[in-house]
UniProtKB/TrEMBL annotation:
Belongs to the NadC/ModD family. It is an enzyme of class 2 (transferase). Keywords: Glycosyltransferase, Pyridine nucleotide biosynthesis, Transferase. This is nicotinate-nucleotide diphosphorylase (carboxylating). Pfam families: QRPTase_C, QRPTase_N. Coiled coil: none annotated. Residues 157-338 form the Quinolinate phosphoribosyl transferase C-terminal domain. Residues 70-155 form the Quinolinate phosphoribosyl transferase N-terminal domain.
């Protein structure tokens, strides 16, 4: 079942305060853009067969409103008063969540008008105003915290992803399934905006043979053989990744693949980056594993991946580097929405946050 939601796409360049309107059609499988060019939404969200993005927005607003609504707004704000509120960056970082923020404001009040001078993926500096929302004051304030919660989290993820992706080259940076419950698509969308790539969305779209599967199956070979048989029986074609923790396990995968037709497409090289006492890492085991595989499969380094180590890991020849920290340890980017921007900037400078 589809839902039609009017939004203003984040396509405007710095210095151009314009409001643009379009239609976003959200289905259970993906968000489609029948009337907006793909360039209008800087980065489309990833696809998911059951994820209800509008439902997540409704849930976030509902937990805020409870069974009474915003009692403070009802007590202090005249129902027909209109205001302009400005988005203000209070630290440097990569902006993410513009399209989602517009959905939040529209859910609260479709008459609200949202305008941007920046787009998802743009780098913003502390003290910069990068967007504004105009309309009923009550609606703006009710939507404010939920909109900012999404944008701050997404921008924090995008900021770290951008730094990691730049440092990891020529390897590609991936997140994992270590996302906030209920925010899987939102977190992974932010990774895309930050310049990373998505790992599997969930348990359904890729076979990933992990250590526990291997232990239960009785070894690497048995686990891969079982997956190959299952996919053949079910007539399924999908990517298959197998985790290895030692060079012997890498060799076991390669030996099996040399003797049998297999669906394996990627080998994870887990914890083959060894921390050293001086804070550096030893990547010699990882390099040896990559040489053994010799391009026969994609490779993915996992474990001990930080902003400080990712560049060295990326030079080993691995295809991908995965980091759970992109989403499970995210530091939200400090962003506010202010009606009295002059006072907000004054206070921000006093506290060194603007």
């Amino acid at each position: 079942m589809s839902m039609i939601i009017s939004v203003s796409p984040p396509c405007l360049r710095p210095g151009l305060w314009k409001a643009s309107r379009g239609t976003v059609r959200m289905s259970a499988a993906e968000i489609k853009l029948p009337t907006i060019s793909l360039s209008s939404m800087t980065v489309k969200p990833p696809s998911h067969p059951t994820y209800d993005l509008k439902g997540i927005i409704k849930l976030a607003l509902s937990e805020d409103a409870g069974d009474r609504g915003d009692v403070t707004c009802m007590a202090t704000i005249p129902s027909e008063m209109e205001v302009e509120a400005y988005f203000l960056a209070k630290e440097d970082g990569v902006l993410a969540g513009i399209a989602l923020v517009e959905l939040v404001f529209h859910e609260v009040d479709p008459s609200l008008k949202v305008e941007w001078s920046q787009a998802d993926g743009d780098y913003v500096h502390k003290g910069v105003q990068f967007g504004k929302v105009t309309g009923r004051a009550y609606s703006v304030v009710v939507a404010e915290r939920v909109a900012l919660n999404f944008m701050q989290r997404m921008s924090g993820i995008a900021t770290l992803t951008k730094a990691m992706a730049d440092a990891a080259r020529p390897a590609c940076i991936l997140e994992t399934r270590k996302t906030a419950p209920g925010l899987r698509l939102v977190d992974k969308w932010a990774v895309l905006i930050g310049g990373g790539k998505n790992h599997r969305m969930g348990l359904f779209d890729m076979v990933m043979i992990k250590d526990n599967h291997i232990s239960i199956a009785g070894g690497v070979t048995n686990a891969i053989r079982s997956v190959d048989m299952y996919l053949q029986q079910k007539n399924l074609k999908m990517e298959v990744e197998v985790e290895t923790r030692t060079l012997d396990e890498v060799l076991e995968v390669l030996q099996y693949a040399s003797q049998s037709e297999t669906s394996v497409t990627r080998i994870m090289l887990d914890n083959m980056v060894v921390p050293l006492p001086d804070g550096d890492v030893d990547v010699s085991m990882l390099e040896e594993a990559v040489k053994l595989i010799n391009g026969k499969f994609e490779t993915e380094a996992s474990g001990n991946v930080t902003l400080e180590t990712v560049h060295k890991i990326g030079q080993t020849g691995v295809t991908y580097i995965s980091s759970g920290a992109l989403t499970h340890s995210v530091k939200a980017l400090d962003i506010s929405l202010k009606i009295d921007t002059e006072l907000a900037l004054k206070v921000g400078r006093r506290t060194k946050r603007a």
